[in-house]
Amino acid sequence: MSADRSTPRADGGIRLLDTLLLISELFQQDMARYFRGSGLTSSRVSVLWVLQNRGPSTQQAVASALGTSARNVSGLVDALQADGFVDRHSHPDDRRAVLVELTPRSAAFMSRMQQEHDELDASLVAAVPPADSAAFQRGLRAVSDRLHELVADGEHHLTVEA
Amino acid sequence: MSADRSTPRADGGIRLLDTLLLISELFQQDMARYFRGSGLTSSRVSVLWVLQNRGPSTQQAVASALGTSARNVSGLVDALQADGFVDRHSHPDDRRAVLVELTPRSAAFMSRMQQEHDELDASLVAAVPPADSAAFQRGLRAVSDRLHELVADGEHHLTVEA
DNA sequence: TATTGTTATACTCTATAACTATA
DNA sequence: TATAGTTATAGAGTATAACAATA
Predict the structure, then answer these.
(1) Nearest CA in chain A to B7
(2) How confident is the model over B105-133, as pLDDT tens digits?
(3) For residues B132 and A138, is the Cβ–Cβ distance under 8 A?
(4) Alpha-carbon distance A150 to B27, whole Å?
(5) Rounded to an integer, what is the distance from CA A15 to the centroid of its chain?
(6) Which of B23, B67, B142 comes nearest A20 by C-beta?
């Protein structure tokens, strides 16, 4: 599902916002495409990233890291476990809890994914003319910060009440 | 579902890629949050954008514009119609086809949404230091183009085969 | 009483295939 | 025969609520 939310500009150029939305679409498409047939999805890989970043975690910890419900994590972990991406172990100190951790196979997978990210990052950085690089990075950071403020303020800018 | 896919950098800075991924997350969160309770979703609004950009359209045209199946569009249009966002009319020349169009209410809604986008765009543009503005826009365009190339080539950089 | 994870239920998005009506 | 849209079926994500076991 790719949506064109852009508005033609008077000068024929492309708006900053539209470029950012387009980049978001490209990321989503790229991820979805390469997960197909692997048993992975964007949501499932989110769980793997949490485990990669934090090590073995309870499902509650994963849920709170992802900002979703424990119920949802149950389902995602079920699927990941069935496909051999994670193991569930009993928590040593709390018999209610479960520790989820990457299997060796998916730990290796995540390492490769991190490496791919490094390569993509380098490729994108290299695409920017060196003379523009510093200003570009400052500008992008400023845009990201502004967006953070707007979202944190609860201001809605990508839509409006119907 | 917000996933942190970032890797700490040696110099403590934030990678370009991670900033772009973060911006994507912020967009998605912002959209999802403000659609809640409105009867709208990101996918449904995609349909409204197609109608806004192209005027009354057959469902096939919508499906092909969004890169999804006719079946999926049927469901989305059903939901939008039930909530009064679109009307279905018979096609004057082709009795198999249906013309979907915005209701007056959602045409007004889309106009406001476009205006909100304009304002958000202006706010983001204004966040960039004026001295960096030209270089920033060139750099972002270059990054977007590079990403397009990579995705078009079928190179996968956000993940890897499992 | 509070928390962890589960089952139960419901809604949404999406894909493929089969089918109807029309071209 | 091909196309537009539907019904049928299935899998995936996510939310809320109720519940069991444990803290």
Answers:
(1) A114
(2) 999 999 999 999 999 999 999 999 999 99
(3) yes
(4) 11
(5) 24
(6) B23
